[in-house]
Each structure stands twice: as C-alpha cells, then as structure tokens.
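pasting Swarming motility protein SwrAA for the record, 117 residues
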Amino acid sequence: MKRASIVREKKYYELVEQLKDRTKDVTFSSTKALSLLMLFSRYLVNYTNVECVHEINEECAKHYFTYLMKNHKRLGINLTDIKRSMLLISGVIEVEVDHYLKDFSLSNVTLWMTEER
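structre below
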C-alpha cells in the first residue's frame, strides 16, 4: 500500500472516532448513524483538507450535502438518509443547515435546480 493511502486511511479512522465522540443522542439506529458518519468521513478525507472535526465549517457541510444530492444513486442512499445525515452532521459541528436543503418537496425549486447541474 502506498504511503498516501495509509495516511488517508489513518486520517479517516481518526475523523470517524472524533465524529462519534461528538455525536449526541440520535432518533434512529446507532448503526445507521455510524454509517452516515463514515460516509461523511470518507468525503472529508477524499475531497477536503480537513484534518480534525474542529476544522469542519458550514461551507464544508453545504458542499457535502450538495455532494450527497448529486451522488445519492451511486452512494446507495435515499432522501431519508440524506435528511438524517443533515441532522446528524449539523448537530455534530453545531451549524444550522440552510432551510432550502431541509425541504425535499417538489416545489423547492432551489434544491432541484441545484441538483440537476
């Protein structure tokens, strides 16, 4: 295994542990919460320069949610998982998610127009 892969894998496990430690009570299964945190950690390792949970900001979270919307089929997640992920991550990093990202109705033109691009 190449050194870069080992470093990324180590960073991934560190982020998962940090996110698990900051996770408050969830209203759905802890297994599902862990899988969503692992998906978020994979995103952080592969697409950002984030080294620890304290470096995650609102902008990073918005990019992640956009990533989920654009790639939900490839990732094998549904809208319920995306909503749960939004609630979980906004609680972990203590930011408020934009209101248009919480509304999955067909009348939410902002969300679906962003998704098509």
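The helical segments are 3-22, 30-47, 58-75, 79-93, 99-102, 109-116.
Residues 3-116 form one domain.
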